[in-house]
Amino acid sequence: MSQLEFDRRLVERLERLYATRDVLRRRELVRASLGARAGDRILDVGCGPGFYVTELLEVVGRNGLVVGVDGSGDMLAVAAKRADGHDNVELHEADATALPVPDESFDRALSVQVLEYVGDVPAALAEMRRALRPGGRVLVWDVDWTTVSWHATDAELTRRVLAAWDKHLTHPSLPRTLAAKLRGSGFEQVEMNAHCFATMELIPDAYGGSLVPLLEQYVTEQGGMSRGEATAWAEEQRGLGERGEFFFTVTQFCFTATRPG
Fewest CB atoms within 10 A around its CB: which of 34, 168, 182, 224? Predict the structure, then answer.
């Protein structure tokens, strides 16, 4: 398995992805489901470049606190720059299964498209439960990549590209088992909402359109496909886009739960 390396080059690409229309929509959905309030202490597990950290700082106000944890120093450097000027934020480089925070110290915790990369999901969930106060709320958002429907002229080549892409994930279909894992980790009131991200335009602002260059790069460098194959796939997708024939859809899942009071 060759997971994505979250180095400076990928950080810059993801920075552009996180600013797209569909990812902005996702952040709105996450914030609404998290339900943060003024004065809350919030933990962001896998905070990446810090978009949620800085947005939630505006919600919790000066009496609240937002703590971001990520395994990539490059990601945290971007997050620190984004949160510059705030004195009620902390950033830590650590693994999701070993959070450097005290017990029962947060009102809410979130982890957005992170646990699908984590080997021991129950351990990560147990750590978030430990960090939450009794009655605290957790939000976990991940993608079931088997729900991808991607129109292609060469269906076999697209199948191989998607299979190569799946190599960067530890759990390509984590949402299928996430409710049970949350309950098994001691959470209650587990709820799930599914959100479809679909587009018929090959544009950078759409989730599917923004994935084309990312997949083209990954499957060549780490997914085991030749550059010629990856380029042929991407060129076919660009051709479909020019002819108005592009189509992409994937379902993403938002789970919420509470630590028993």
Answer: 224
pLDDT tens digits, residue range 55-69?
Answer: 999 999 999 999 999
Mean pLDDT across 229-241: 97
pTM of the model: 0.92
Residue 232 token pair: 């042929």
Chain-centre distance for alpha carbon 62? 27
Q: Beta strand 248-258 with 132-150: parallel, antiparallel or unpaired?
A: antiparallel
Instruction: At 92, list the tokens.
Output: 């830590």
Helix, strand, coil percentages for the chain (3-state, nearest 5): 45, 25, 30
Compute the chain's Rg from CA coordinates.
19
CATH code assigned at 83:
3.40.50.150
| Residue 158 falls inside a structural domain | no
Supply the pLDDT for residue 3: 47
For 1, counting Cβ atoms within 10 Å of its Cβ (0-12 exposed, 13-18 middle, 19+ buried), the class is: exposed
Q: Considering the domain boundaries, does residue 161 fall inside one?
A: no
| CB neighbours of residue 126 within 10 Å | 18
d(CA 6, CA 9): 8
Number of domains in the chain: 1
- Residue 204 within any structural domain of the chain: no
**235 inside domain:** no
208 contacts 197 by C-beta, under 8 angstroms: yes
CA count, 13 A, side-chain hemisphere, 253 = 21
